[in-house]
Design brief:
Layout (H helix, E strand, L loop, with lengths): L1 H37 L1 E2 L10 E2 L3 H7 L2 H32 L6 H8 L1 H4 L2 H11 L6 H8 L16 H26 L3 H9 L4 H29 L3 H6 L11 H10 L4 H31 L1
Antiparallel strand pairs: 1-2
Helix pairs in contact: 1-13, 2-13, 3-8, 3-10, 6-8, 8-10, 10-13, 12-13
Amino acid sequence: MAFSKFINKWSGYFFILPGLLFMIFFLVFPIFYNFLLSFQNVTLLNLNGEHAFVGFANYVTIVSDGTFAVSFQNSVIFTFLCIVFQFCIGFALALYFNRKFPGRDFMRSILLLAWMLPTVITATLFKWMMAGDYGVVNYFLQSLGILDKPIYWLTEAKTALYGTIIANIWIGVPFNMVILLAGLQSLPEHLYEAAKIDGAGRFRQFVNITLPLLRPTILILLMLGIIYTFKVFDLVLIMTGGGPVNASTLLPIYAYKLAFTQYDLSLGATVASIMFMILVAIAMVYLWFMRKEEQL
């Protein structure tokens, strides 16, 4: 009897135990260990030996490094431009595909290929397309008379970052379109019918009905987009490797180079910890906005 009572009382916790253990070993522990590394001096030379505790010395070293400032600036530019264009283009496509016309489902499924393709394939394709001598982008622009000579998109400091931005925009547009289209299709039709009776045009309906009702969806989409874009790594690594001369180096690339090229694991962990704290701050801002939304 006592055993059955114990089972009835704690059975719910046994069901969540596998998921809890998974989160502890693969989420909580890596984050904790990464922060621990950032306060130590761990390199390839002393990896198996004793690790001296250095406090915030690694953070001071990273913040005072000029490469960190360049990487942070590139990450902000990369994230901002990608989010703006992904959201605007995705919203426009969502409004377009929200209408009924022949071939809508087929066209929508074709656009999803950009999101479904592995990032390695997408990065390689864009690397070929933006090649200076034989790339299709230069050939197309020269055929239209826009360019007199080819541009080396991914090997020139002025254009390398923007070449990766274009590729990432192409990847993220379908995701924005799908999420916003789902939000548009969930909006009640009677509100638009009442607005038409009152004489409101399409623009007034969009401003006064669509945008306010989609605000929670937009906030979630922007937060997920910022988190995903801020930690983009494989796309940039394949297309430019962070070059030339750190022109396209983002914070994940910077952390990778410190940890696995210079073999300073502590400095790499420090950059990763800074990124984690930035994303946590963004998540806190999102939660604050959501709380404000719930109070309205």
